[in-house]
Amino acid sequence: MFLQIGVYGQAELLSSGPMPCYSEKREVLIWLQTRSASKVYLIYNNSKNPSETFETSSINTEASNGFTAQFCIKRLEPGNTYFYDVFVDGKKVEKPYKFTFKTQKLWEWREDATDFSFITGSCAYINDEPYDRPGKPYGGQYEIFNSITAKKGDFMLWLGDNVYFREAEWSTRDGMIYRYTHSRSNKEMQEMLSSMNHYAIWDDHDYGNNDSDRGWRNKQDALDVFKMFWGNPGYGIDGKPGLTTSFNYSDVEFFLLDNRYNRTPNDRKNGDRTILGKDQREWLIDVLASSKATFKIVCMGGQFLNSAKVLENYANYEQERQWILDQLELEKINGVIFLSGDRHSTELDIMPREKSYPLHEFTISTFTAGPSNYALKENNVYRQDGTLVTERNFARISVFGKKKERILKCTVYNVAGEEKWSYSIKESDLKYPGN
After folding, report:
1. Segments of the chain with pLDDT less than 70
2. Element (H, E) at 290
């Protein structure tokens, strides 16, 4: 009852969503959240044959799962757009926009890889005055979500700090559910959630308290609640807990890393200092080495290339960072790009390498949390002039071009959707000599 009245204050059928999550060629996951215990189902049809409709099984939403539901829709046709309706306790959900989802195209052995684009960024803070710190509100400019919707990405990749647990709630599972519920029900966010597929990783603020690590008491609750509110295609390595997974979209493969569950405390000076843990870092090199993708995008909550040993940058974990760099060299892995969030500012870092192509990292932050100019003070030798953005922003990354001539272009936009800068990388720019 508290969630119904305290968070929402109006009687709509859904709290948030629906939100398409992972998309494969013949399968899509749809997530939604009701305001109270309800019976929910979907009716959908292929846009190419609208007269033939299909109905999912019903799901009963419950308080223990935050009144969320996840519909795994199977036996779809590749490269198709589907329309669908949501029914809550027999009533059709009405919105001023249509609900659609898309399957990925079956392009292999038939044609060049499909062109596509996705939206990315991090740090979405939604104000909640009773539980926020006193003073000036930390979050703002929620209209950024309208600008994101207008850029029409095929999917959105959230790079962590997607919600901000407050002191009043991070110590309990129900508190975490409350925070996700409050943030996800932001009105400016709703059309954006429904307009494209969504994938996510986390960072400290949607894992626990500030800079939280492997010792965090409630890390299993945090993982359970993350799974409750997102719909990635998998979680963890070989049955071990965590967020780690990967997915393909056209000829690009994305590697979603967990920089929290196995992380050594920042202040611990001895022992094996690690962010990923042995299993995850070995997995990363394995999957990068075996991947046939044109671009291999490694996604992590915190910065990897930044040379400054400040805050939570990977440079503070020298041995593990160098091991990863060495393995990329030894295995001669083409096409690697890093993508990160966390910093409340945006930049492009490029690390030159003596015997191979330069490594690139796009750091995209912040959506609605307070911007920071801290990066101006640090000595990051890899930051490219003109790419530091210290206002709220997001990026649209496009991949396009003919076979063997693919291009990845990152364009950064401010809250109003106005371009701040763009940068393109050719497929040929990310290859070892002779490959």
Report:
1. 1-11
2. helix 278-290
Phi, psi (5° rounding) for residue 74? -115, 175
DSSP string, 198-260: EEEE--GGGTSSTT--TT-TTHHHHHHHHHHH---S--SSTT-SS--EEEEETTEEEEE--SS
In whole angstroms, what is the distance from residue 103 CA to residue 27 CA?
Answer: 7
Q: What is the pLDDT of residues 55-80, one digit of tens each?
A: 999 999 999 999 999 999 999 999 99
CB count within 10 Å of CB 86 equals 25
Tell me which architecture the domain covering 2-102 has in CATH. Sandwich (2.60)
What does the longest C-alpha to C-alpha distance in the chain come to? 65
Read off the DSSP letter of residue 384: P
**Percent of the chain residues past pLDDT 90, beyond the cut:** 95
Region label for 327, one of left (φ > 0), alpha (ψ between -120 and 50) or beta (otherwise): alpha
Structure-block tokens of residue 202: 């986390």
On the question of a cis peptide bond just before residue 366, with omega within 30 degrees of 0, the verdict is yes
Q: Which CATH number fits domain 116-430: 3.40.50.300, 3.30.1360.120, 3.60.21.70, 3.40.50.280?
A: 3.60.21.70
Q: How far apart are CA 313 and CA 409, in angstroms?
A: 25
pTM equals 0.96
Torsion, Cα of 83, 89, 91, 94 (10° steps): -60
Distance CA(371)–CA(373), nearest Å, equals 7
pLDDT at 1: 35
Rg (the chain; Cα; Å): 21
pLDDT of 9: 34
Contact 317, 360 (CB under 8 A): no
Q: What is the pLDDT of residues 110-164, one digit of tens each?
A: 999 999 999 999 999 999 999 999 999 999 999 999 999 999 999 999 999 999 9
Domain ranges, ordered by start, for the chain: 2-102, 116-430
**Beta pairing partners, 299:** 256, 339
Each residue of 259-302: pLDDT tens digit?
999 999 999 988 889 999 999 999 999 999 999 999 999 999 99
pLDDT at residue 4 in the model? 44
Indicate the burial class of 268 (C-beta count within 10 angstroms; 0-12, 13-18, 19 or more).
exposed
- Give pLDDT, residue 269: 85
